[in-house]
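Job type: complex structure
Entries:
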Amino acid sequence: MMKRLAVLLLTAALMLCCGLPSFAAGSIEVTEDVSVSDDYDWTRFKGQNMTLNVYNWGEYISNGSDDSVDVVDAFEKLTGISVNYTTFDSNESLYAKLKSGAANYDVIIPSDYMVAKMINEGMLKKLNYDNIPNFQKVDEEYRDPDYDPQNEYTVPYMLCTTGIIYNTTMVDEAPTCWADLWDPQYAGNILMFNNSRDAYAIAAFKSGNSINPQSTEEVDQVVEELKAQKPLVQAYVMDEIFDKMIGGEAAIGVYYSGDAITMIDDNPDLAWVFPEEGSVLSVDCMAIPAASEHQEAAEMFINFMCETDIGKANCEFIGYTTPMEDVWEELDEELKYSDIAYPSEEEAAREKVFTALSDEVNSELDLKWSEMKSYDEGGSGLLFLSLLAAMVALALFNIWRKVRRRNRNMY
Amino acid sequence: MKTKHLRLMQRAYIVLFFGFMYLPIAYMIVFSFNQSKGYSLFTGFTLKWYSSLLHNSSILNALWVSIEVALLSAVIATVLGTAASLGIASMGRKSRLLVTNITYIPVVNPEIITGISLMLLFVAYQRFAGGISWLPDTIMGFPTLLIAHIAFNVPYVIFNVTPKLKQLDIKLYEAALDLGCDPRQAFFKVILPEISPAILSAFLICLTYSIDDFMISYFNCGTVETLPIAIYSMTRKKVSPEIYALSTIMFVVILAIILVSNAMESRNYRRDQRALREEGV
């Protein structure tokens, strides 16, 4: 309550400062599909030849392809700031890039647990929310999250939840819980995450542990579950799951809710379930690295991304869940009332979020994960050994033949 | 009977061999015309990925960066490498061996080592230059990418040009001097035309390696992005079919270049042969 009051006061103060009349302001049309609030000084950096370096996940913004809105282009047109937009593939590579000092970004989009880690290590700037009035549109539910308890560093961009996607024609009974992924009847028909954190969370839910382990013993115990599951698993995948599930190559897979919508669009036999044990809610957030030199312009970019038209365009392009009520209001009926993107309250109550792990636990998780991945029942190890033996035998045979020939020639 | 079997096996081998090499590309080309985003079911023919590629600024930007770096680094590396080969060719036996072996190292070295060590060097330079006002300290990005690409391209040029220089008869150069050329003229009129095929092929190799490179670029690109990095970043969501379209276009362009250059070469060859025959008559 106090917080809300403070925010209100801040907004009021901001409005006084700028001498702006009221909320009921008009809008500026940027392109045919995009209008933004005119309650904001979008053009204050015009003519300064400024470049913002934005670092986002690949394919994670509406980019003009397939008749969508080109969000970056619209921002450049509106503000006169040019954007150098580049992409990364995982939180870990984002982190490595920033840590190495080999690049300087102004806006980055890490996920929740990486935000927590970066805050701990002083890698993020505190935001000036006066420059991001659109933060007010973020649902209460997604403010002051565990990874950023005072909400000083981040603005949520997109949400998604992990869950089970299955092919209704290939299962006798619809799966309802993570434990079904350990069911021997689906042997060779299960797809698992090929990333340690998400895969661990599944095993943790199944065995009733926390998805954010506190000790290395806990990690060891949960990874045993994954080891036990390994013989049943067809493959550990990330984006390959689209084609495997759409093509009917596997009966059950685990992935992110937003992407499940895309898969079900392509293959109506597929269905989605939020498992009973709970699921992981991940939040990708916009933040500004500590080394950024254009904080105010970066905040303008973040504010722009929270504009309703922009949020809608991104949401439709990516298919993930928006944290902004205004954007949700504007969505097509189909996406708006989708049970997958916007789960029921009961399902939402079971969602858990990742927090940063201690270094010790983190490295134990990495170690055990790669051990589990390389762990084998022995079959292919034997094959490898026999191949090696065959090669050595062949080589020896060749040498022996040569020696014999040479000896024969000597006489 | 035996020869028939043999011929059948030869045919089968050739089919298998070319299938192995070209089926993946053919598969990709087919799916660049696919209606849906998947790559396992063909749902209908469309050209939409080609048209939407033209509107996808992030892919196009990455492509331009790749092409710019490739062209610039190939040109610079070719010049540097050719100069180096000339120097190496005029060295004594021992120092030539030494220098040749040193140039080998970056080629046989795993790329990841080259990439990381270059990055460390650039970061260290930035720290160092931060303290000195007249040194540019924000080099991370296009400049470092370019330097890195030149660095790994130069050895390939040396290995292409040096053998050609070895074949070259030094007497040609001496004859040019005898006939009144100064050394510069002798170089440009005699040596350079003789080794130009090697220089051209070195340039093309650099171009290919540079467009292709992921590992070294990944560590040294700063805030710019080359095409391979842009494609790699798509793995969480899904590689967009626009990439198939782009790859198809690149494949066709390269195929066209090869065909045209081969046609030109064989025309030149025939012309030379004819000239020789006429002279003989």
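Summary: Chain B has a mean pLDDT of 89. Chain B touches chain A at residues 36-41, 48, 52-53, 55-58, 61, 119, 122-123, 126-127, 138, 140-141, 219-225, 229-230, 232-240, 242 (CB under 8 Å).
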